[in-house]
């Protein structure tokens, strides 16, 4: 077990870790199984365009999500674009601002207008009442996000969308294998999109998937994913190339084989962080509702500067000097990013975006590491409130 420094590296102590512990380090599953799958694909001479590995991956993702259909894609951003385009959304799309830029970009790239919505001040989930106030004659859809793997208010949003005849999608990039109200995330709204990027707990190097129970949407998205080709050379729709290749599917399947182990590991880390950070003034670890199934892949802490004695960016710097590479996910909110900034103010989003950071977890981080990292934060908090460092 690593030591918790009595003196922080930022003040001349030795770093707690000799090699980095970083957010987003990929979980690597069984290498032999991965190479066997890759070899089989090479032997088959079938490397993309709906190969057997991609089809198996789709079936297994649909089984986890509890949906009838799964359309695997080269990444989640393309999956979001397919979902919106295949369902004929026009005009404005209501999206939370507290998310990765990809959510807004998927909308804007299609020539649609993202309209940014505020979030719950504690959980960061899209606020249905604020969303309601943003609905106007040009609104075509709501694209909510299960940010950090914590479920958005699925039922309220389904009611809201139904009341206004809007399409409803969920960016479920963070929420594969989670549940909401006991229901697997995947079956909400018209469709949901997962990410299997390398930084996700289940990864296919790069990859994504649109899951839905709507056969028409699934079929249109499937065709649009492959240049709009219906069969042979018959092109029926404007399409793009958003297919998942066989190497990616091989990695995705291998990752799925280890999914339960990855979740159990992340859960242990979560509990180590929770125990280590308990009772620290101004430091709040965003909790998981353990009545639900969670993937525990984003460890999010909010730093309240007034009570902690330091701000989020100072904590990130302190951690970095200990070789702990956190990330300011997600800061700033999309509504304050250059392509979208138009003076809109979203108070809850802005406060959370200024306070949150992600701490390292995943297979490369042990529960003992998590305890050490929590210990560093504890030391930082103590030093921040002692007169020598408080100035
Ligand atoms: N919606 C939401 C809510 C999302 O969060 C995302 C993606 C999407 C949609 C779109 O999904 P995809 O189209 O990507 O499938 C990373 C990921 O690239 C991105 O997928 C993810 N969200 C986002 C939250 O994180 P960056 O710009 O922070 O990546 P980068 O290169 O700075 O790496 C992040 C950390 O991971 C670093 O500490 C380094 C580490 N890392 C990264 C890679 C790729 C590794 O250790 N090994 C690696 O192979 O976006």
TrEMBL record:
Keyword Membrane: no
Entry's Gene Ontology BP terms: polysaccharide biosynthetic process
Record's keyword terms, sorted: Aminotransferase, Pyridoxal phosphate, Transferase
Active site positions: 200 (proton acceptor)
Modified residues (N6-(pyridoxal phosphate)lysine): 200
GO MF, any single term: pyridoxal phosphate binding
Gene3D superfamilies per record: Aspartate Aminotransferase, domain 1, Type I PLP-dependent aspartate aminotransferase-like (Major domain)
Family: Belongs to the DegT/DnrJ/EryC1 family.
Protein's UniProt name: dTDP-4-dehydro-6-deoxyglucose aminotransferase
Species of the source: Winogradskya consettensis
Lineage: Bacteria, Bacillati, Actinomycetota, Actinomycetes, Micromonosporales
């Amino acid at each position: 077990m690593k030591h918790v420094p009595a003196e922080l590296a930022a003040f001349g102590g030795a770093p707690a870790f000799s090699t980095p512990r970083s957010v987003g380090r990929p979980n690597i599953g069984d290498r032999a199984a991965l190479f066997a799958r890759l070899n089989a694909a090479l032997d088959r001479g079938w490397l993309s365009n709906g190969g057997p590995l991609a089809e198996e991956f789709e079936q297994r993702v649909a089984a986890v999500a509890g949906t009838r259909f799964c359309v695997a894609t080269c990444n989640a951003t393309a999956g979001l674009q397919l979902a919106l385009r295949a369902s004929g959304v026009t005009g404005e799309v209501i999206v939370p601002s507290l998310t990765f830029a990809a959510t807004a970009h998927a909308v804007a790239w299609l020539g649609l207008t993202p309209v940014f919505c505020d979030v719950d001040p504690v959980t960061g989930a899209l606020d249905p009442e604020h969303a309601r106030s943003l609905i106007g004659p040009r609104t075509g859809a709501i694209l909510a996000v299960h940010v950090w793997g914590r479920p958005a208010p699925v039922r309220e949003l389904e009611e809201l969308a139904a009341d206004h005849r809007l399409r409803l999608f969920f960016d479920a990039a963070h929420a594969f294998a989670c549940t909401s109200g006991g229901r697997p995330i995947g079956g909400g709204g018209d469709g949901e999109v997962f990410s299997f990027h390398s930084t996700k707990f289940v990864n296919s190097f790069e990859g994504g998937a649109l899951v839905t129970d709507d056969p028409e949407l699934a079929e249109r998205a499937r065709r649009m994913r492959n240049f709009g080709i219906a069969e042979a050379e018959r092109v029926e729709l404007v399409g793009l190339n958003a297919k998942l290749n066989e190497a990616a599917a091989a990695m995705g399947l291998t990752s799925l084989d280890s999914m339960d182990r990855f979740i159990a590991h992340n859960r242990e880390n979560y509990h180590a962080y929770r125990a280590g950070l308990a009772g620290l003034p101004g430091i709040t670890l965003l909790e998981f509702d353990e009545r639900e199934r969670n993937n525990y892949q984003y460890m999010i802490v909010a730093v309240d500067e007034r009570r902690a004695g330091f701000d989020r960016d100072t904590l990130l710097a302190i951690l970095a000097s200990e070789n702990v590479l956190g990330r300011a996910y997600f800061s700033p909110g999309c509504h304050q990013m250059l392509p979208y900034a138009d003076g809109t103010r979203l108070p809850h989003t802005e406060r959370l975006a200024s306070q949150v950071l992600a701490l390292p977890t995943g297979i490369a981080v042990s529960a003992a590491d998590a305890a050490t990292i929590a210990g560093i934060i504890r030391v930082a908090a103590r030093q921040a409130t002692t007169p020598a460092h408080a100035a």
